[in-house]
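Write out the 3D structure for:
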Amino acid sequence: MTWHAITFTEEQISELAHNTFEDEFQLMYLSAGSPRGMSLFEVRSFPVHPIYYVSPESMKYAASLIEPFGPVPCNAPAAYDIILLAGDFFVPANIVASHLNLHTGRSGDAVRSH
């Protein structure tokens, strides 16, 4: 499953479409029973518009909300750059692990892959 990035246009931002998107995403998250892994993040890149990142799990539950905004497949965002806007707050730990290429060793401890 793939992450997706969404960048809102000037017009969408002036119409507050990004705020509506956040609210609708949270409602879909709650309506779906708060599924693990369904999250919406923001990365602020001043002076450029914020970029929203939608976790892979989100497409199962909120594709009808996400697709009209032209999501672009991408890698997971860097954990130190993100702000959780809506959804599952456990996802950042998964992002950190994916960026460090961690896997579980025999002892059950997380170890870095070579």
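The first helix runs from residue 10 to 14.
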